[in-house]
Amino acid sequence: MIDWMSDHAWATWVGLAVILALVELMSLDLVLLMFALGALAAALVVGFGAPFWVAILVFAAVSLALLFFVRPSVVARLHAGPTLTSGHDALVGRSGIVDVPVDAHGGRIKLNGEIWSARAATDSAAFDIGAEVLVTKIDGATAVVTNKES
Fold first, then answer.
1. What is the three-class DSSP state of 10?
2. More confident residue, 137 or 85
3. If residue 17 lies in a helix (H) or strand (E), which one and from where to where?
4. 85, 138 in Cβ contact below 8 A?
5. What is the pTM of this model?
6. Which residues contact 58 (CB under 8 A, 6 or more apart)?
7. Is 22 exposed, middle or buried (0-12, 13-18, 19+ CB in 10 A)?
8. Average pLDDT over the chain, rounded to whole?
9. Phi and psi torsions of 38, nearest 5°
10. What is the distance between the alpha carbons of residues 120 and 28, in angstroms, rounded to a whole number?
11. Nearest Cα to Cα of residue 145 among 87, 105, 85, 86
């Protein structure tokens, strides 16, 4: 086995690259992928007739360079998608209908099919039954609302 590996060093490096890439599919951390690409670079060097120690140096240099210089930007790009608002934060910006008159001290609105405690965003604002209001924030279990037109 060792004799075959030394006679076919390029195939050994390619095999190592494939194994590392397959294990990367299980971890999805992009670390082993950088080592797989380093192994491919070593296979290329050995394919051109370089000795084993040069292949080891190329493998280490390419793998570490990719790990420290390429991987951070790839990971940042993969994680830079839009954020999904969920829970109470998803209600901000929605409109509701006043069910019990709302002022700075309290009231109730129908929001997203549910009845919510509500209060006006400013002390001077007040909303009558049936008025359409806009939720500006959720404070605990209370929707802070303002006039829909503003």
1. helix
2. 137
3. helix 9-27
4. no
5. 0.56
6. 38, 41, 42, 45, 50
7. exposed
8. 91
9. -65, -40
10. 47
11. 105
